[in-house]
Design a protein that fits this description.
201 residues; 2 domains; 3 helices; alpha+beta; 10 strands; Jelly Rolls; four-stranded antiparallel β-sheet; six-stranded antiparallel β-sheet; ERG2_sigma1_rcpt-like; globular
Length: 201
C-alpha cells in the first residue's frame, strides 16, 4: 500500500516538473509581448517628452552664425544665452559653463564636446575639432541633427556615389536607425541635437 502511494507521488511530481518549463516559456512570452507593446505605446507619445525643437534650434544656429561670423566662441555664447533666456530652469537643465569641454571618441572620429543639455530623451551639445576628423556616425535610436556653425561636414551612405556637403548654416539630419561615414574638416564645429532614446547612445 505504501509503495503504490509513493509511486503516485513520484508520478505527480514528474508531471509538475514537465509542466513547469512550459509555464516558464508562456510567462516569458507574455512578458515579452507586454514589453514590446509598452515600447510601441511610449514611441507613439514620445513627442510629449521633448522640450527642444529641431526647427527652432536650426534658426538659433543661423542667428548665432549671423551674430558672430567666424567666431566660434561668440556663436556658443549666443546659443547658450538665448537658450537660457528662452527656457527657464524649471523646464530644462542647461549647463551654462562653456568651459566644460571634454574629448569624445566615437566611431573612429575624435573631437571635443560641450554638453549644454542631456536627458534620457534628448541632448544638445557643441561638437567639433580644430584639427578635423572622420569616422562612422553609429547606428542610433535617436534622430540626430548636426547644425553646422563653422567649417564643413561631408557624409555618405553605402551605395551613394557622391558625397553630401553641409556648409555653415545647414543641417545634416541623421534619422534614427541610419548610419553614414562622415568627415568634419579642420575647424568644423556644430550644434548637435539628438532626440529619441538617447540613454542608449
Amino acid at each position: 500500500m505504501m509503495s503504490s502511494s509513493k509511486g503516485r507521488d513520484f508520478t505527480n511530481r514528474a508531471k509538475t516538473h514537465t509542466a513547469n518549463p512550459m509555464t516558464k516559456w508562456v510567462s516569458r512570452l507574455a512578458l515579452g509581448i507586454v514589453l514590446i507593446a509598452t515600447c510601441f505605446l511610449l514611441d507613439a507619445v514620445k513627442h510629449r517628452w521633448y522640450v527642444l525643437d529641431p526647427a527652432n534650434l536650426h534658426e538659433l544656429a543661423q542667428a548665432a552664425i549671423a551674430s558672430s561670423p567666424n567666431n566660434t566662441a561668440g556663436m556658443v555664447e549666443h546659443i547658450v544665452s538665448n537658450l537660457t533666456a528662452t527656457y527657464p530652469s524649471s523646464i530644462i537643465a542647461l549647463n551654462t559653463n562653456s568651459k566644460e569641454w571634454v574629448f569624445n571618441n566615437a566611431g573612429g572620429a575624435m573631437g571635443a564636446m560641450y554638453i549644454i543639455h542631456a536627458s534620457i530623451t534628448e541632448y544638445l551639445i557643441i561638437f567639433g575639432t580644430p584639427l578635423g576628423t572622420e569616422g562612422h556616425t553609429g547606428l542610433h535610436t535617436a534622430d540626430d541633427y548636426f547644425n553646422i556653425l563653422v567649417g564643413e561636414q561631408w557624409a555618405f551612405s553605402p551605395g551613394q556615389l557622391e558625397m553630401e556637403r553641409y556648409p555653415p548654416g545647414s543641417v545634416h539630419h541623421l534619422p534614427r536607425g541610419t548610419a553614414k561615414q562622415y568627415k568634419m574638416h579642420e575647424g568644423c564645429f556644430a550644434l548637435e541635437y539628438a532626440r529619441g532614446k538617447t540613454f542608449v547612445l
